[in-house]
Amino acid sequence: MVKIYYSRHCVHLGLALLLAAPCAFFPDVALAEQGFARKNATFLIQQTVSGLVLDGLDGKPMVGASVAVKGGGQSTSTDANGAFSLQVPDNNAVLVIRYVGYITQEITVGSRSRLEITLKPDQAELAQVVVVGYGTQNKKDITGAVKSLKSEEFNKGIISSPQQLLQGKVSGVNVTAASGEPGAATGITVRGPGGLRTGSTPLFVIDGLPLDNSSTGGGDPLAFINTQDIESIDVLKDASATAIYGSRGANGVIIVTTKRGKAGTSMLGFSSSVGISKIARALPVFTAAQFRTEVPKVGGVLDDKGGDTDWQDEITRQGLTQNYNLNLSGGSEKLSYFASLGSQQEEGIIRKNQMGRYSGRFNATQKFLDDRLMVDVNISANNTKNSRPPITSLLNDAIVYNPTYPARNSAGAPAVYQGTNNPLLYLDLNKEITTINRVIGNISPSLRILKGLVYKLNFGVDNSTSTRDVESLPSTVPLIDGRLETYYNINKNTLIENYLTWNWSNDKHNVSALGGHSFQKIFVQGRNYSINKFIVGNADPIYNPGVGQELTLANNRPGGFAFNNELQSFFGRVTYQYNSKYLLTANFRTDGSSKFGANNKYGYFPSFSLGWKISEESFLKNSMFSNLMLRAGYGITGNQEIPPKITQALFSSLASASYPLNSTSVYAAGTTYSRLANPDIQWETSKQTNIGLDFGLFNGALSGTLDVFNKVSDNILLQVIPADPVQPASTVWSNVKDMTVTNKGVEFALNYSHTTGNNFTYNIGGNITHTKNKVENSPYSIIPSGSVSGAGITSSTINGYLNGQPIGTFFLKEFTGFDANGLSTYRDLDGDNIITDKDRISAGTAVPDMLYSVFGSVAFKGFDLSVNMNGVSGNKTYDYTANVGFSKLRLAKNVNATPESVANTKESINNAAMVSTRYLKDGAYFRLNNASLGYNFNTSKLGIGWANTLRLSVTGQNLFVITKYDGYDPEVNADRAIGGVSSYGIDFLSYPRAKSVIFGLNLSF
């Protein structure tokens, strides 16, 4: 944290050094400009004053603060410890202390020889610059719904992907860490889900390079980023802000900016942390003693092996996470640079599950031609290795396995039982190893052609490769032949952009215009092979697949795929300000995508927004409002996240075709259509209206934002049964003309900061979002999602998309209790005395209608404490784990269960566990996401002045969660999609969440 703090201030130190440089190298000139000759300057200096400049926000020393004599030529800047020393003419001299983002102070020296000065932050100036599409804007001039989050505001703890930094921090953004597995995909939506099969993940832009959201090798597509390298994250939420990205901005845009070096200073930073994690809460299955009591109660014959085994404890562990980061930054007037190396080794709380990531990053900015030409270079290389056991099978056996069976035999090896599996054998015999290598970089030269006119080129490449080995080792007891499956994947994303930016202003008018062209090409390829039957021994087949004994293609046929996607775009933006009060922003983008047919290759995505700075009007001058701005905008964005090639014809070569040449001959070989071409398919589009109000009171100490939005997605892309009777494909992709998905809601964020006279600083903030989601005008009675399988329930569905209901609606039979025979009863909706699928009801949605968070921090002298809490409500979770795993019938067969499954004495042992509202539960929760306590040592007092900062911290993560849900964790979303239709809120053997304590060290020089 301290390391980040000093990096944030390096730019100010650089500016101060640049300003002081002429005085250092040309002292005669500097004094002469003030009307003094060098030979006379000595006689005017009568005393020396020294002092310390402190940050009123957290009490820390301020590096690079400017200290100058008012009306004189003497000036200096504070050193790494915030100290300064300056010669002044006399006691009446007035010192002017300045620091960017803080209120300038003037202090009369008087008879004092040492001063301690505290600068108060100027809330109106802090965090002014926000990154938007193809440029930056001052925060006070943005007319769209945009939220910028700086590194010091990020969530803390064990962070595997950048999305986790945002959880609870930005209104309208729902981050779902649906699994506790290291490196697992983290779900994120901006202002609710839109498409059904096209996904709702926003576009990510890393240092100007748009990613394709692919997950080469599995896991989270952003897990390659070292979060310690991130300087800021900017979230573009409404269409007026995202339309500049056209067909890729329908789900919002998240722009990640990494740290850069600052001219005029150099810094070496080191940070490390060690985290200890354990399962936050286990499922409350019966202990061995309880099991011995409950099995006979339900009429079972107890199979007792005399043990007392907690199988969840056997497969879990206390995980250790180690994180080490080293960075070097600095620069001169012409060149600045930043380099970093990082290592994160994270053990999952399930045994033999761990993720290791090594990352390296370098960026530089070089100026040429009297600063007319500036070249930015960014490059990062990352290696991620994920090792995991068969987690689903492991968890399933751990929660249902007989607790009276000993886990190990007398020799300490996993015990083997006839006809059943010991979960520990999965750990020894099965594993999956995925290795991903990713290199991403771009070069962006910009040339100032004329005053106000700049040309910029952006050329970037994102190249990733992965190898995934899924291995089952051979064994004699139990008898397993062994199998190895290997998958190779390649993803290459190439981008080239050219654009011009023009700026012009005078006393009343300010105009900026942007116009450019973009071309992006994405190549994806995958290959796989497998081999069976290995010799039992010490050799690992991963390293020599040739030892496999079964060499036929019957069970080992190789496979693969490959495709290219191309996107060509023309884009432009115009911003206009009049008298710094009235603002206009207009965006336009035309996209051509290879994913769409010839008749609709291009899509057109305009937007506009208006802003009125009410606080600049004369009637609000000198009022309590330091900022009051009204915003309104409208725009159209698109979504092209569909499979490639679906608009093109598909052919199959057959050994024999469908028609014989005559009644006696064999069928002839030939090629036939598998899918007809569809040249009319086009973009799914979203039209969004946003009205917002930004306000600041009490010199910016209290600030907030209120937004009201309405987003309507239409031209919904669906895979449907073809209307054409001669269409050879059983399903085709098509736009459903009148169908819409609407997300409307209100976002409110508030923050208050205050510093007292004794350097006590505190900050408290929060946000709340209320969203309503609705599917309308669907031509289908239901679009099913959320598949299930198991005895008696296969082919049932859990989620469905219904007219008038939200996305993620649970479409279930309504459980009403038990009849006289102890069998489940359900509501007979149509009154025909038969319970069928026609009796299903809309039983609530998995998508929360309320997101909220509260966060705060306090700082006094060297201590600081920050706390972040977040929650959701209005959502349901389907406990599919309980549905298929726990019942009286299974318990009677010596399969473990929970007390909930046997709580009703009326239920018969023969009752079927049908998919119904019986297993639908409240998914709301409130979580203490993280709390961090730190101390910043005064390095001067410790006698280690060679160190700028020294900080120790301890952080607790997922310390508690308040919820009615009795599964591992309410924040779940197992992928149970049907035919690509997204499912939501289903808990099926989800990886348990961990509770962690992390100890950190930050040091900079």
UniProtKB/TrEMBL annotation:
InterPro entries in alphabetical order: Beta-barrel_TonB_sf, CarboxyPept-like_regulatory, Plug_dom, Plug_dom_sf, TonB-dep_OMP_SusC/RagA, TonB-dep_OMP_SusC/RagA_CS, TonB-dep_rcpt-like
Residue span(s) of domain TonB-dependent receptor plug: 139-253
Signal peptide segment: 1-32
Domain of life: Bacteria
Protein's membrane topology: Multi-pass membrane protein
Keyword set, alphabetical order: Cell outer membrane, Membrane, Signal, Transmembrane, Transmembrane beta strand, Transport
One Pfam family in the UniProt entry: Plug
Subcellular location: Cell outer membrane
Gene Ontology cellular-component annotations: cell outer membrane
Similarity field: Belongs to the TonB-dependent receptor family.
Protein name, as recorded: Iron complex outermembrane recepter protein
Annotated organism of origin: Daejeonella lutea
Lineage, opening ranks: Bacteria, Pseudomonadati, Bacteroidota, Sphingobacteriia, Sphingobacteriales
